[in-house]
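Our preliminary data section would be incomplete without showing what the modeling component actually yields. Below, a chain of 427 amino acids is followed by its predicted structure, encoded as tokens that our downstream tools consume directly.
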Amino acid sequence: MTTMKKNLALGATATVVAAITLTGAGIHLSQGHAFFKSNPNEIVDEVWQAVNRNYLDATFNQEDWMAVRTEYVRDRTYANPEAAYAAIEEMLEKLGDPYTRFLKPDEFRNMQIDTSGELTGVGIQLGQDEETKDLVVVAPIEDSPAFSAGVLARDKIVAIDGKSTEGMDINDAVKLIRGPVGTTVTLTIARDDETLQFPIRRDRIELHPVRQEERKEKGIHLGYIRLTQFNGNAAVEMRDAIKELEKADVGGYILDLRSNPGGLLFSSIEIARMWLDEGTIVSTVNRQGEVDRQVAKGKPLTERPLVVLVDGGSASASEILSGALQDLDRATLVGTKTFGKGLVQSVRHLGDGSGLAVTVAKYLTPSGRDINKLGIEPDIIVELSDEQREFLVDNRDRIGTLDDPQYARALSELVQKVGTGANAQTP
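Predicted structure:
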């Protein structure tokens, strides 16, 4: 969901609850590690400087950021790294931004920095409500242990192995949820008016983000593509899926972005270009103004009719893609309002092996919509009843079938589009 030092990353979560085996030298401690270890004040100053240079909000949440430096850097001496880390966390809390966060060295090593690594854990995207500080499941990773157990987007985790999460830092929660493959963790979840217990066996998690299927339903030949995450493999797998379905001469597509929590910015842009021939895809704006505008260019892989499924677990990179397709009249969106995460973080490796994620920008859809905290309203709203939701939780193989009311409505819309020849492509 994130990339290494200074690369832009999108995602609705503070972390992925899984451990990762890293490749390459990006996480290795530099020669400056010993210096920072013996001079913990320097790491506090490094964090302050990074926020001062790059943080999106130039008012720093109405804080006098120079006074913060005086308080935490000039007027204090830290005896050890742990004291410095506590001060950094206290300093960052002043920003009121759950996405700008400090990661201790062990937390940074375990962070999902490179999504090509091997994940082990329960497989949930975990976030924290900005106002209530509740720990919230943004989305379970499809086919993960949490997904199979029935954990849903927007579930609140109120206890971990019986320990209350009230006031718990998200990184502390991650430490409790993670563990060796084959062991079990019990999550206590608040969902609507219910409190539910989910014993979940930790396991290795395969991250193949694209699944496609050629289908003949309701008199049309269609391609169904489910995209679960915008990781480093997503664009390649999406390209292969579309090409395969184009060879099969499908009449249109349903692209399922439900419970897709986001991921890499470049991945969402590449995938958008596969469906669009021209127009702005997304604009990125920092505190100085617009810094980047990504546009569609060249011939798309297909011009056939497209319907996109979204819900409350569709976040960030999912919202970039669905927002562009909606604004440019390329697709009809079906489902429920998306998560509403329109911020971009830069992740950097600090001198002592710890890490820092800083909110550096926000993105706007082609029409200029800032969807942060607002989400994207689909063109056709299809809410699931409690009974329908419970059925799909208990019958995961029925998601994306005619037993899935949101999919069924998307299919009806696609039938109409194919029948009228909307966006039709001559084979």
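The radius of gyration is 22 Å. Confidence is low (pLDDT under 50) at residues 1-35, 112-117, 422-427. Preliminary results of this kind motivate Aim 1 of the renewal.
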